[in-house]
User: What shape does this take?
Amino acid sequence: MGVPDGVSVVLFTSDLRLHDNPVLAAALRSAPRVVPLFVVDTGIAAAGFAVPNRAAFLADCLAALDEGLRARGGALVVRRGDVVAETCRVAAGTGAGEVHVAAGVSGYALRREERLRSALAADGRLLRVHDAVVTAVPPGAVLPAGKDHYAVFTPYFRRWSAEPLRPVLPPPRAVLLPEALLSEALLSEARTEPLPAASSLARGTASPALPRGGEGEGRRRLAAWRRGGLVRYAERHDDLAGDATSRLSPYLHFGCLSPVELAAGARERAGGGCAGAEAFARQLAWRDFHHQMLAARPDAAHRDYRTRHDRWREAPGELAAWRAGRTGYPVVDAAMRQLAHEGWMHNRARLIAASFLTKTLYLDWRAGARHFLDLLVDGDVADNQLNWQWVAGTGSDTRPHRVLSPTAQAERFDPDGAYVRRWVPELAGVPGRAVHRPWLLPDEERERRGYPAPVVGLEEALERFKRARGRA
Assistant: This one.
């Protein structure tokens, strides 16, 4: 089937960029004129996943995308409602014969894709789904013998590292709109929604130190990272106070940066002997690993990937203390306060905070995962849920019963306490490593500082966990 009137629709989802965007490139190859479309999905809000931090970042991303399209002769058409209904309406109104979209991996995205394919076919139109847009290596591209996905990271990483990447694509020089959209009146009619402000996408106030979104900001940060931080990443990425991670995860989550471009660059530098680039490539592979797991097991977003038959405790007060950064364990509290202030958390801190909730407090990983999704600007269902499951021991960790001691982790990755003092100012005056064990301070001094006693003793908690998992 040809494309009526030479028009195709580009449905942007998690690929809000012009550089290295196979969806946009394919649409431009298939037809001389395209409709760049973004639908504000009311289903996301109905499910409770429209949260202030990601809404603010998304608003920045859409504004940057529209600006880039307008510089090339196009514009972003924005609709609000059910993605399938609105996309079909735009395709019909502009005479488009094809709709191009990036492949998703969540159950929600896969169901939406099937609904869209059926609805378009009923109207004589085609859906074109493109891989290697949201991930560097598409889910299912590398498989173990006789299985539909890798369940252990190390063999996956070996295959991932050897898998060829598609070529990195340049941004388009021009994006031409259909004749039906060229007049401002018709463009306004087709774009029933203006470029959305954060307040129209989610209720509530974003974190005060939230990063700015958009492709331009992402590329600026990427260039700075390649010039400076990448070389020393292997030795510094676990340094809590050093803050030596790339902080590119929000831009990957919204597709402002291409995972293929980042992986290709990291592989090239690693091949030249850069240990930091090799370590960074490994982190990109973890991201792809989780996406291929979720693609194969969509219910892992809310069900144990490997059940340990846990009977999680119900302790609302302890959960509230963890959320508020008032557990009495400084490195855990620092992590949770960083999350609230920035909408982001250092990866090592994520592991510590998650282990404390699931192993030390023995509370359900789903409660922690939901709190993270409520605040993380890079809150990605695949990465977030499966990282939580890894820490909880219900996921892909080959040592499912390991427990990260918050004091041992703090002393190793924040040895002089700088990270804790930054985020827990009540303890700023406590010298040296003593900042990691404030329960050893005289009670009156700790109370004067306004810092709580530990919600549980570590030895008691460890024994409780062992009993729960049948390992006492």
Residues 275-296 form the longest helix (22 residues). The CA atoms of residues 319 and 363 lie 8 Å apart. The beta strands are 7-11, 33-41, 77-81, 98-102, 126-130.
